[in-house]
Design goal:
Chains A, B: Keywords: Acyltransferase, Amino-acid biosynthesis, Branched-chain amino acid biosynthesis, Isoleucine biosynthesis, Transferase. Chains A, B: Pathway: Amino-acid biosynthesis; L-isoleucine biosynthesis; 2-oxobutanoate from pyruvate: step 1/3. 2 copies of one chain form a homodimer. Chain A has 542 residues and is an alpha/beta fold. Chain A has 3 domains: 281 residues, Aldolase class I (TIM Barrel, Alpha-Beta Barrel); 73 residues, no CATH class; 127 residues, Alpha-isopropylmalate synthase LeuA, regulatory domain (Double Stranded RNA Binding Domain, 2-Layer Sandwich). An 8-stranded parallel β-barrel of chain A has the order 2-3-4-5-6-7-8-9, surrounded by 7 helices. In chain A, strands 11-12-13 form a 3-stranded antiparallel beta sheet, covered by helices on one side. A 3-stranded antiparallel beta sheet of chain A has the order 14-15-16. In chain A, helix 18 runs parallel beside helix 20. The longest helix of chain A is centred in the C-terminal third of the chain and has 20 residues. At the A-B interface, helix 4, helix 8, helix 9, helix 10 and strand 11 of A face helix 4, helix 8, helix 9, helix 10 and strand 11 of B.
């Protein structure tokens, strides 16, 4: 009988601590959707009251299936729960669960909190009881637990037991400094199960010695039933436990799969690679090509040597089947896998095509060619759909951009102030008529966008409510003379959202491609279906 | 009594399998020196006879202290040792040790080698005896050992025992597919110690489930006494076991340090960070900022909250002292920075200032203000230093940019082709003289960079070797009218690297700021100290 193992995502809280990472409310909403899509049980959205973004994010419940969780601290020493505004803000949040961090290392209790061990325990108990009283699921993160246990075993265990006895659903043992080793985790967790049953214990590991995943699994083997981690191991210093790696191992390695059930279905597992990459896009950072399971190189074998053996029996060279995690074997043997993925994608978009349609290999080649150049279609649905529709059917030529010119100038104005101005001129042809528009903006791309959407003749009404909500730039291959990829997310008045991509060594050019795709896609979806075998398609709402 | 644990570097052989990596003979010589400098016991230089570079590399012994090792394969089935030219080339090399890979998975023996299990064992024995006869230390890499053991335990153990009994100094158990888990490693290795003593066993792990380091250490705990790995975990798919991480853990974690002695001295350990970064330079790839122990972020803490506690006792927040591995604590100059953090950072930069200097609060406010606007000083050391020097002392005004104009135009050229051209004009004043330059580029920023660095009068010689090696763009707050942050990493001819930042709604403007800071910083470091109380400062080499 398999036991239930719970996964807890702290990308938006602990992961957000990473230097250089700044999640907006929009980012948090998107990431929450990604985490839910994967089948993770808990999403820790942040710390309501700690900063404006988190407070706004917690104004409403953001999950449908995962348990929406708020982070906070146990009540401040010397105050009552009702007299702690920080804690009150957390308890007020529209959540299913509340996870409070508590000191469990005597040194921290005395020096950082400046209080007694007894008061620390009282604080834990009062805080848990307050959470339970609010009807939320209560969790305690025992900070620095393993170092605390080594320094003062009794107090560490007291903290865990106090939380449990006060009604905490979960007592999470945190290796906050990240320096604990797997065999130590095993020993210590085993001891803890004497005061808190394993099915109420969780583990929160860090990667400072490259043991975050190993420590998480060692803890599970010793009895814990909740693992905390982040997407792609995002986190400060050396990162947090990588939930992506853990999900794949828990689902695909028999020792775990036979003993434990997690909330991720086989179908959700197939989304793993896409979800991991999409998260990197949101972070605007290059995916780790060598990431276990989902990295582009994870199943890349030097073809010659192994190709024939792989065709016969891939298990001789692969530890798991890459397709189970939505990745693919990269061996130049056949493109059978590529073709079936493509068909599935086209089906999903409502583009009807027979599986032996001779245009499919051409589309596949075109996609591969462009992706080698830098296009990222997994994050740009609309651009992919336009590419497919153009190759398989037709997309009306709504307008044609004859030329554009963008200028950025930094100079002194008439008052002698140094200013930077950006201006763009765009010349388009609509229904045979030449239209010219000029626009200004905060920067070259903004100016171009303004000019491009200023006057598109009879199509203007259809794009009045078009809004750019996100704009991401990534430089591929480094340096200022490298390739630039631009991803644009657009929205219309009905709440439809779509993403488009542009690639060029020139950032303005790349932005231009993505902008034109965005407008074209909007016009395509507003009008009639492009060809008989295509179902008229409504844009998927967010 | 501590037991001797041997470290074996296969950067130049297994690490070299990584797609995109091509070591020249020069690279191999340099890397060998690095590995020796660290105190690694064996350097596996490649496969003599397999390719011209390796053959040339093995023409002479390349190590002074480490055991120079050649890789190869056991004799081909059906041939004798003397009739196997491949093996002959390996035996001819000027080395201390020879490491031959052998099949140990029955499936591979039958399908890949097309021979019998018995013949496989004979091949192993003959090959080991041939190595010993040449006066070399013999090692056998048992390929796919753990999968082979699971498929046919008897044959896997036979392979190991045969190698040992034939005189191999080391029998290395390889997790070639990388899918074995730590508890399996423990069980299997324990079993193997019944046929080969632990002090003749080695482990060679891969990171396909993020367990390469954990598996290596689990194997040691089960009895092996040689660990194979690569610098920075270089290797195909998800990489090899990271020797850098392993060295630090073996030296600094008491459980290992008390039981085992490795060839790395404390002084050599202090070189760890520099060696790791130097290796990345040779590879020409950006160092992993989050690498355990040696990454730039490995000991980076968000200030404010912890700063005072850290000053009192760093062990409360750090799992090891960063200085032991040649790294340093990075209390981030962020908007939570306190005065003591700032002082520590200024001290490190060689900027002398009293702790009650009235300009410090102004500098702190300036940093906070700019960070709220989007500047990220934790990733832009040079921009921070310029900011500090300007506020606390002075930075010579090497040149002044009076104006610039950048233009991007997409139009048809004389041949009717649609092209995008980018051109920039920059007007600067140097020593009272007006200089104007025009530049072209792949995009607006590239064009601006070209124009800006084209003619800076008497400073031109100092910036000739300045090179932009990385360029990152991040849009803060979404949309095309948001704030853009640009981070530029620059390098000069001596291998110095520095980072600068620029922030503006206008991407060209932001890039311009970062470019000017980069040039100014280079000029500052090339010249005299800015004010009496500042120590003349050399740029820190990587």
């Amino acid at each position: 009988m398999a036991e239930r193992l719970y996964l807890f995502d702290t990308t938006l809280r602990d992961g957000a601590q990473t230097p250089g990472v700044d999640f907006s409310v929009e980012d948090k909403i998107l990431i929450t959707q990604l985490v839910e899509k994967l089948g993770i049980d808990y999403v820790e959205g942040g710390w309501p009251g700690a900063n404006p973004v988190d407070s706004e994010f917690f104004a409403k419940k953001r999950t449908k299936t995962s348990r929406f969780t708020a982070f906070g601290m146990t009540r401040r020493p010397g105050r009552s729960v009702s007299n702690d505004p920080g804690l009150a803000a957390v308890l007020d949040a529209a959540v299913d669960a509340v996870c409070l961090v508590a000191k469990s290392w005597d040194f921290h209790v005395k020096v950082a909190l400046g209080t007694t061990l007894e008061e620390n325990l009282t604080g834990i108990r009062d805080s848990v009881e307050a959470v339970v009283a609010c009807g939320r699921e209560a969790m305690i993160d025992c900070e620095h637990f393993f170092d605390g246990y080594k320094a003062n075993r009794e107090h560490a265990l007291d903290c865990a037991r106090t939380a449990y006895e006060a009604g905490a659903r979960w007592v999470v043992l945190c290796d906050t400094n990240g320096g604990t080793l797997p065999h130590e985790i095993s020993e210590i967790v085993s001891d803890v199960t004497n005061v808190v049953p394993g099915d109420h214990l969780g583990i929160h590991a860090h990667d400072d010695t490259c043991h975050a995943v190993a420590n998480s699994l060692a803890a599970v083997e010793a009895g814990v039933r909740q693992i905390q981690g982040t997407l792609n191991g995002l986190g400060e210093r050396c990162g947090n436990a990588n939930l992506v790696t853990l999900v794949a191992t828990l689902k695909l390695k028999p020792w775990y799969a036979e003993r434990f059930e997690i909330g991720v279905s086989d179908a959700q597992l197939k989304q793993l690679t896409a979800i991991s990459h999409h998260f990197d896009e949101i972070l605007n950072r290059a995916p780790n090509r060598q990431a276990p399971y989902v990295g582009q190189s994870a199943f890349a074998t030097k073809a010659g040597l192994h190709a024939s053996a792989i065709v016969k029996d891939p298990t001789t060279y692969e530890h798991v089947d890459p397709e189970l995690v939505g990745n693919r074997r990269r061996v130049l043997v056949s493109d059978q896998a590529g073709r079936s993925n493509l068909l599935a994608e086209l089906e999903r978009l409502g583009i009807g095509v027979q599986k032996d349609d001779p245009r499919l290999p051409r589309l596949l080649d075109e996609v591969k060619r462009r992706e080698a150049e830098g296009y990222a279609y997994e994050a740009a649905d609309a651009s992919f759909e336009l590419l497919a529709r153009r190759l398989l059917g037709h997309v009306p030529a709504f307008f044609h951009v004859d030329s554009f010119r963008v200028m950025v100038e930094r100079r002194h104005n008439a008052m002698g102030d140094l200013v930077t101005v950006s201006e763009a001129v765009v010349k388009v042809t609509v229904d045979g008529e030449r239209l010219m528009s000029v626009g200004e903006g905060n920067g070259p791309v903004n100016a171009l966008d303004m000019a491009l959407r200023k006057d598109l003749g009879r199509f203007q009404a259809h794009i009045e409510d078009l809004e750019l909500v996100d704009y991401k730039v990534r430089i591929l291959n480094g340096g200022t003379s490298a390739t630039t990829r631009v991803l644009i997310e657009s929205r219309d008045g009905e709440g439809n959202r779509w993403s488009t991509v542009g690639v060029s060594p020139n950032i303005v050019d790349a932005s231009f491609q993505a902008l034109v795709d965005s407008i074209t896609f909007k016009l395509l979806c507003s009008g009639v279906a492009a060809s008989p075998e295509d179902r008229p398609r409504k844009l998927a709402s967010v």
